[in-house]
């Protein structure tokens, strides 16, 4: 693999597993130094320990602004700068159903972990990135922001909000050298998803996709690495859907 990200320093949130962990591995493989963070300290430590000195693990709850600010401080203290922020952490609940039944507490918790976490990340990362000429912010959204499913109204609505946040960030700070983009996966076969669906269902999803297979966390990490790199230097304010071309007659 080329060292396309050599010299760049990144923060990835929600890096203990799934898409975040795959992204840390991919960014490091391309030469970046990475602050890998997660609310689950053990999980993120396990990801980092396979990757050597270029990856440092930090426990951080992204709903806590001081903890997010500390991640930016860590990037600067350990690696001297910050070039890339991947807002990726998420938590979800079976209580997130529809507009009538989803409780206020869950609406607020979902907006905190999706929207306010990205606000905190941008607020603390941008001034530091600007000092060294700019940077790239990548936020993970979801197909749930673009098409309604039977449940998860708060999740889908929060993801739509964070896409607009990314657009404003691109517009407001573009001339300061900040690019801001969104990756919006469809169904991704993470460890968490493997626990929910059996092989037959997973194969059905793959067969229904235009790509003929399910999306892996690494497929999303590939796109994050592109958006982190100078190869996407004139790409900003975009939502890049990563769904293999969509489903053929199956909605998820
Ligand atoms: N897996 C999919 O099918 C899919 C589809 C579309 C979008 N996404 C999005 O991709 C991103 C990653 O999803 P995933 O499937 O890899 O998730 P995951 O559940 O596998 O991992 C999420 C990570 O975030 C961490 N986390 C939870 N709350 C946190 C908090 N408050 N602070 C810091 N870390 C916290 C968890 O500990 C976990 O390690 C999310 O933004 C998700 O909405 C996933």
UniProtKB/TrEMBL annotation:
<dbReference type="InterPro" id="IPR036291">
    <property type="entry name" value="NAD(P)-bd_dom_sf"/>
</dbReference>
<comment type="similarity">
    <text>Belongs to the short-chain dehydrogenases/reductases (SDR) family.</text>
</comment>
<protein>
    <submittedName>
        <fullName>Short-chain dehydrogenase/reductase SDR</fullName>
    </submittedName>
</protein>
<keyword id="KW-0560">Oxidoreductase</keyword>
<dbReference type="InterPro" id="IPR002347">
    <property type="entry name" value="SDR_fam"/>
</dbReference>
<dbReference type="Pfam" id="PF13561">
    <property type="entry name" value="adh_short_C2"/>
</dbReference>
<dbReference type="GO" id="GO:0016491">
    <property type="term" value="F:oxidoreductase activity"/>
</dbReference>
């Amino acid at each position: 693999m080329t060292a396309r990200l050599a010299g760049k320093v990144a923060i990835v949130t929600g890096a203990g597993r799934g898409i975040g962990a795959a992204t840390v591995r991919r960014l490091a493989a391309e030469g970046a130094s990475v602050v890998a963070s997660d609310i689950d300290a053990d999980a993120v430590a396990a990801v980092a320990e396979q990757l050597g000195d270029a990856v440092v693990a930090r426990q951080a709850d992204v709903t806590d602004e001081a903890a997010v600010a500390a991640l930016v401080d860590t990037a600067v203290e350990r690696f001297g700068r910050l070039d890339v922020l991947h807002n990726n952490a998420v938590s979800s609940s079976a209580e997130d159903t529809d507009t009538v039944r989803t409780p206020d507490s869950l609406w607020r918790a979902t907006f905190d972990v999706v929207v306010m976490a990205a606000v905190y990340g941008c607020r603390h990362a941008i001034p530091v990135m600007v000092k060294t000429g700019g940077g790239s912010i990548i936020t993970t959204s979801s197909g749930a922001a673009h098409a309604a499913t039977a449940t998860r109204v708060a999740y889908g609505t929060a993801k739509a909000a964070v896409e607009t946040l990314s657009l404003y960030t691109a517009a407001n700070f573009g001339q300061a050298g900040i690019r801001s983009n969104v990756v919006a996966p469809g169904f991704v076969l993470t460890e968490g998803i493997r626990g929910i669906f059996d092989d037959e269902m997973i194969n059905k999803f793959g067969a229904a996709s235009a790509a003929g297979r399910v999306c892996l966390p690494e497929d999303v990490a590939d796109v994050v690495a592109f958006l982190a790199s100078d190869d996407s230097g004139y790409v900003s304010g975009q939502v890049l859907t990563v769904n293999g071309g969509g489903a053929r007659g199956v909605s998820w």
